[in-house]
Automatic annotation (TrEMBL):
Residues 208-261, 394-429 are annotated as: Disordered. This is Arb2 domain-containing protein. InterPro entries: AB_hydrolase_fold (IPR029058), Arb2 (IPR048263), Arb2_dom (IPR053858). One of its GO terms (cellular component) is nucleus. One of its GO terms (molecular function) is siRNA binding. It comes from Electrophorus electricus. Residues 1-18 form the signal peptide. Residues 223-258 have a biased composition (Basic and acidic residues). Residues 54-351 form the Arb2 domain. Residues 394-404 have a biased composition (Acidic residues). One of its GO terms (biological process) is regulatory ncRNA-mediated heterochromatin formation. The keyword Signal applies.
Length: 429
């Protein structure tokens, strides 16, 4: 009997202690919630992260391009430093992006002042109020009867005249921009068209919803359901403490208004072809397409196959991400690519070394670098040699076709031997 009483006392004491501990935890939780509710997180965190306001010019950033096209600090002479403030990655990234926008404007100035290109507004019939974009052309782009060069960059933040923003900031203008391609093309008698496939929409600040964001007044007559929702929102606000710490400064919400006829890289490429390139006088059209630019060109071929095949002499891709299977390119297009296209890909092999592709869609050669963003610059000279050899090949074939009937019998073997010779030269690239 005493044993049973001892058990009862022990259980009672255990239950009492458990209740006391639970009550203590509840009081601690309530106290923590009360403390968090009193903290102005925005004000607290803004002391750690400086305002997201940055200079508007290179001069204000205290950077400039030297005689070698390298970005250097005007006082220290040092290259650009990303980690301007330690342990503030978000702020440093926003600063980098702000500098990138200035770099974009600087490249535009170089295209206009140094390369003599002119800006062409798109759509061509745009009204004053609708969103617009633009591309660049040389003065003789549409009137040059001989040859025309089309430049198409990859996807992302890069705009007309750029291959890679990171290279412009960390390396130099030559490796990161299309300026060397434009300059050489003009020297060799090409007209030039520079596409701007990533400028696809106008970004505007989103209008606030009427009455949005304000908490409902607290009152005893507030419906229970509404009060519960309010408590859930309050609970979420408190539990989001860490996320709010990471992003203390709320950025403006924006809407994107697409640009008519140019709302994607593929659509932009097709629009420029239809309204400009297809009407040009150039007998020989050549294309340099980097990364996603290769996909955009293949899409153009699928949309305008006969026009492209009859006008374009050769295509130089650099680490292109096109895929003839996923994009449903027919056999005719695939055959044309094998004859007229070369893709310089990132590889540890020396420049122009043949590389076995996963998909045998065209000739693949090493760009002499394993860095994707450097493939265009590293293959620069090889690309122009590739174009010149295709020009020579086509001109020779045309000369043979123009010969008199009496002469054709003598030269019947010429095209075959020529193709063999050209194939050998192709492999030597």
């Amino acid at each position: 009997m005493l044993f049973g009483a001892d058990v009862f006392v022990f259980c009672f004491a255990w239950l009492t202690m458990a209740q006391l501990l639970a009550q203590e935890d509840k009081e601690k939780t309530t106290a923590l919630k009360d403390l968090l509710s009193r903290i102005d997180l925005d004000e607290l965190m803004k002391k750690d992260e400086p305002p997201l306001v940055f200079p508007k010019t290179l001069e204000e950033f205290e950077y400039a391009f030297n005689e070698h096209g390298q970005l250097r600090h005007t006082k220290t002479g040092e290259p650009f430093v990303f980690n301007h403030k330690e342990d503030l990655h978000r702020w440093n990234q926003k600063r980098y992006e702000a500098l990138g926008e200035i770099i974009t404007q600087h490249v535009y100035e170089r295209l206009e002042q140094d390369c003599g290109l002119r800006r062409q507004t798109l759509p061509v019939d745009a009204t004053e109020d609708e969103p617009k974009t633009f591309m660049y052309m040389s003065e003789d782009a549409l009137s040059n009867p001989s040859r025309l060069l089309i430049l198409i960059q990859g996807s992302g933040v890069v705009r007309a005249g750029q291959w890679a923003r990171r290279l412009i900031i960390n390396n130099d203008l030559d490796s990161g921009t299309q300026i060397p391609f434009i300059t050489r093309a003009i020297e060799e008698g090409y007209g030039v068209v520079v596409l701007n496939p990533n400028d696809n929409f106008l970004e505007v600040e989103k209008a606030e919803e009427p009455g949005g964001g304000e908490a409902a007044p607290d009152g005893s007559d507030e419906p229970a359901e509404k009060r519960e929702r309010k408590e859930e929102r309050e609970s979420k606000r408190r539990t989001d403490f860490y996320e709010k710490y990471r992003n203390p400064q709320k950025e403006k919400e924006t809407d994107r208004i697409p640009i008519r006829g140019n709302s994607s890289p593929e659509e932009h490429t097709l629009y420029v072809w239809d309204h400009f390139i297809s009407t040009s006088l150039a007998k020989n059209i050549f294309v340099v397409a980097h990364s996603y630019g290769g996909l955009s060109f293949l899409d153009l071929m699928i949309q305008r196959e006969e026009e492209v095949k009859s006008r374009v002499r050769a295509v130089a891709m650099t680490d292109s991400v096109h895929n003839v299977w996923h994009q449903n390119a027919n056999r005719s297009i695939q055959g044309w690519l094998k004859e007229r296209c070369c893709n310089w890909v990132s590889s540890p092999e020396p420049l122009d070394t043949p590389v076995e592709p996963m998909l045998p869609d065209c000739l693949h050669l090493s760009a002499g670098t394993e860095r994707h963003d450097l493939t265009s610059w590293r293959s620069f000279h090889s690309i122009f040699r590739f174009f010149s050899k295709h020009m020579e090949q086509d001109e020779s074939v045309e000369q043979d076709e123009e010969k008199e009937p009496d002469d054709r019998e003598v030269s019947t073997a010429t095209p075959v031997s020529m193709r063999s010779s050209n194939r050998a030269r192709h492999e030597d690239l």
